[in-house]
Specification:
- The protein is of the alpha/beta class.
- The chain contains 27 helices and 31 strands.
- The chain has an 8-stranded antiparallel β-sheet, sandwiched between helices. A 6-stranded parallel β-sheet has the order 26-27-28-29-30-31. It has a 5-stranded parallel β-sheet with strand order 6-5-4-7-8.
- The N and C termini lie far apart (97 Å).
């Protein structure tokens, strides 16, 4: 039999001569299924688009995957993307708003947001089958890989993909349902003559049924979620009271995690080893195993360290357990990658417990010892290839060396492994020979409380178990993660433990070694010094006062508010009535100021009144300085309100009070936890007669980056409505287009435009050829044409001479 393979059209990076060489070599023709597995897999990493069967002599139809979606997040989504990219496939990521900074979003060719209307929670967004299918259909996705967790073991998700004509990278929906039910999986094991732990016949739905089962088989009893995995919905019960309480707690946890609170019970095997076998099957009844993994190092049924191959098991034990895994796969007509999990007791007897119909977190150790890319094999099998097509048969699958994987999580061992959140201030993972890193973290990433705490998977490959231990320990010792707590030190202690290094651990390993939890607090002296220096730069030195003297209790003198007649007699003016009803001053209804002119006649009338004024008008900036970001001047709104009555009276003839803007937002939001808009409106109510003034940085508004025009327009409109009057619009480079946006926004809002010239140079110097008088007069003319009501000269560097 001959099977011909077609290499897809070449990319610009591959010449025609390269194509001819490939097509004339063994890459193009494989006779009688004898091409070595290693050779076939090696070609797939550099042949453009990988190997795609055009016509199979057996009549099998191949559905090439051109675009694939990962219905998952984090490192597993990235793992899928990398495998697909090496096969020439385009990749699609999905994410809710809370996950938009995750690295997997950037690693895909295309990314689409889930739950844009915000109806679902951060986790539920990844469980919305309808939206995932809609996105896939709308964007030409051929296949969906579920990864692990989330929807990976949901038969209804596999069925939805099948109904939509999308390839589900995994077993078909019937097998997912069958293997997702622990009771159905046990029934299958009975039929396949595979030994199982004594357990309940079907689902246990209430405490009474659970107690009856325990009376029959005896304690201890393990209560498990009937539909689910990953250690959730599990409780070990040593007696009747623990079973009554643990059954309900596990059922509630399973309902929250998997949407089904049904439970399954089995006799608990004391001190077993947890051994699992990686299997792969195709659509044509072919199955192979990729040997076993030891996952005995667990805490609360969550795997922490995984090893392949399992240490200290005999070849006969390995053969028996792997053969039983193949028997289960054949009995269920299993397709794609899956894992059969067993418990091995102290006498070497193994018992089937469950089958995970998905890719496992710890698949990396199997890949390292076999050299087989499990994810790429999943994709090829999903396209319709048989295992022989891929050079995979049991007689050619071998293993070499030992691999150990640890899960680096953002959990604090000193707080019972409570998940930690925060920003990754420093993120460096140890590398080197024999180290593989699967991760989604990066420096600056904010770890949220919504998702699993897995930060990275670090896999070490060595000649033997001890060699892999040393490599993994060295990589962890070189790792530096700051900003959040991690389990690095805990895992290092596991690797240092003699029992682990000898390979004699079982599932009670962590419980029997409480010294593993004696880990040092992860304190970085370097980061502490950097934070201290930053504090000094921002907030000044915190040197203690060099005296024990008690501060003097001196009451500051508060000026008496003058009556209107006294103010008029001092200023030589007569008061006009005002419509204001404010009562900050005893006779505030009789006080007036320039703002009254503006309110009555608008910005043009205001400008005219200023021009006709024969004296000097001042702007008071005390309140503006109270808004700066230094600790000494972060003044609260209530403190400003205390002095507002006196300011409103004594400064009533001022040109303006500059009291709001960019610094206000910084201080109010970051330090005082106040609303800057509320502050403006309260100040306006307290001081109704004096114009308020602020700085507007043109298109940058009150920030340090350009905003869309409609944002600037809406900001100015709201500022005027809240009580702002005069807007000093400036651009440090006198860029008129930038100034004009701010001026137009203020004008449309009905505010007073004060266009400012940023002054530099010396206009009194007759030799000046750039920033001379003509330059500034020309700029002034443009600003006047632009509609400014007031002209400001902003001497930012203090170089404006009296003569100039």
């Amino acid at each position: 039999e001959e099977e011909f393979y077609h290499i897809p059209p070449l990319t610009p990076n591959h010449s025609a001569s390269t194509h001819r060489k490939m097509s004339c070599s063994r890459w193009f023709l494989r006779r009688n299924n004898r091409l070595p597995h290693s050779s076939l897999h090696a070609t797939r990493t550099f042949v453009p688009g990988g190997l795609v069967a055009r016509q199979m002599s057996t009549g099998r139809e191949i559905r090439p995957i051109k675009k694939i979606m990962a219905a998952n997040r984090g490192e597993i989504a990235i793992r899928i993307f990398r495998a697909a990219r090496e096969l020439g496939m385009e990749t699609v990521a999905v994410y809710p708003k809370e996950d938009r900074r995750n690295l997997h979003v950037r690693k895909a060719n295309e990314s689409f947001q889930l739950n844009a209307n915000g109806d679902l929670g951060p986790v539920d967004a990844y469980l919305n089958i309808n939206e995932l299918i809609e996105i896939a259909l709308a964007h030409g996705v051929d296949a969906i890989h579920p990864g692990y967790g989330f929807l990976s073991e949901r038969g209804d998700f596999a069925a939805a993909c099948e109904q939509a004509g999308i390839i589900f990278v995994g077993p078909n929906s019937q097998v997912v349902d069958q293997m997702g039910s622990k009771t159905a999986a046990r029934d299958l094991a009975f039929k396949a003559n595979v030994p199982v732990v004594p357990g309940s016949d079907g689902v246990v739905r209430n405490v009474e049924e659970a107690l009856a089962f325990a009376d029959e088989v005896g304690y201890p009893i393990m209560a498990k979620a009937a539909f689910g995995g990953g250690g959730r919905g599990m409780r070990l019960c040593q007696n009747k009271d623990e079973l009554s309480e643990g059954f309900l707690a596990a059922s509630s946890e399973a309902r929250a995690a998997f949407g089904d609170g049904s439970m399954f019970l089995e006799k608990f095997v004391q001190n077993p080893r947890h051994i699992e076998v990686q299997i792969i099957g195709d659509k044509y009844g072919n199955h192979v195993h990729l040997f076993e993994r030891d996952c005995s190092v667990q805490r609360r049924h969550q795997k922490i360290v995984e090893v392949a191959p399992a240490p200290l098991i005999t070849e006969q034990q390995r053969k028996n357990i792997c053969n039983d895994a193949i028997a289960l796969a054949k009995a269920s007509s299993y397709q794609n990658a899956g894992t059969c999990e067993f418990l091995v007791d102290e006498n070497g007897n193994h018992y089937f417990i469950e089958m995970n119909a998905r890719l496992q977190v710890e698949h990396t150790v199997t890949e390292e010892i076999t050299g087989i890319d499990i994810v790429q094999t999943q994709l090829r099998v999903a396209e319709g290839y048989s295992l022989p097509d891929l050079g995979l048969s049991q007689d050619v699958v071998g293993m070499s060396g030992c691999a150990i994987q640890c899960r680096m999580t953002t959990e604090d061992p000193n707080l019972n492994f409570a998940p930690d959140t925060g920003r990754l201030e420093l993120y460096l993972i140890g590398e080197g020979m024999g180290i593989r890193i699967d991760q989604s973290g990066y420096q600056g990433l904010v770890i949220s409380p919504y998702y699993d705490s897995l930060l990275a998977k670090i896999t070490a490959k060595g000649r033997n178990h001890q060699d892999a231990c040393v490599k993994l320990h060295r990589a962890l010792s070189e790792s530096r993660v700051r900003g959040v707590k991690t389990n690095i030190e805990f895992v290092k202690k596991v690797l240092e433990n003699e029992e682990f290094r000898n390979g004699t651990v079982n599932t009670s390993f962590i419980e029997k070694n409480p010294d593993l939890f004696d880990v040092d607090n992860q304190v970085s002296m370097a980061m502490s010094i950097v934070k201290f220096l930053g504090e000094q730069v921002v907030n000044g030195p915190l040197t203690p006062i060099g005296t024990d003297a008690v501060p003097a209790r001196t009451l500051p003198p508060i000026p008496r508010l003058l009556s209107t007649s006294e103010i008029d007699s001092k200023s030589g003016t007569s008061s006009n009535s005002s419509s204001s009803s404010q009562q900050q001053h005893p006779e505030s209804s009789k006080l007036t100021g320039l703002r009254d002119v503006y309110v009555r006649g608008g910005a043009v009338a205001f400008a005219k009144a200023v021009r006709e004024n024969k004296g000097v008008l001042f702007t008071d900036t005390t309140w503006r300085d109270a808004h700066q970001s230094l600790l000494a001047t972060r003044v609260r709104t209530k403190d400003i309100m205390t002095i507002a009555p006196a300011t409103g009276s004594i400064m009533r003839n001022a040109f303006s009070i500059e009291n709001w803007g960019g610094a206000t937002f910084d201080v109010a939001l970051r330090f005082l936890r106040e609303c800057p808009w509320d502050r403006l409106e309260e100040m306006r109510e307290a001081v109704p007669h004096i114009p308020f003034q602020m700085l507007l940085r043109g298109a940058n508004a009150v920030g340090y980056t350009a905003y869309p025009d409609n944002v600037v327009l809406k900001f100015c409109d709201q500022a005027v409505r809240s009580g702002m009057d005069v807007f000093r619009v400036f651009d440090s480079l006198n860029y008129v287009d930038n100034l004009r946006l701010g001026m137009d926004a203020v004008g449309e809002a009905g505010g007073i435009i004060e266009a400012a010239i940023s002054y530099t140079g010396d206009v009194s110097d007759p030799n000046a050829n750039k920033y001379n008088l003509d330059y500034y007069l020309g700029l002034t003319e443009e600003l006047v044409k632009g509609g400014t009501h007031v002209l400001g000269i902003k001497d930012m560097a203090g170089v404006l001479k009296p003569k100039a």
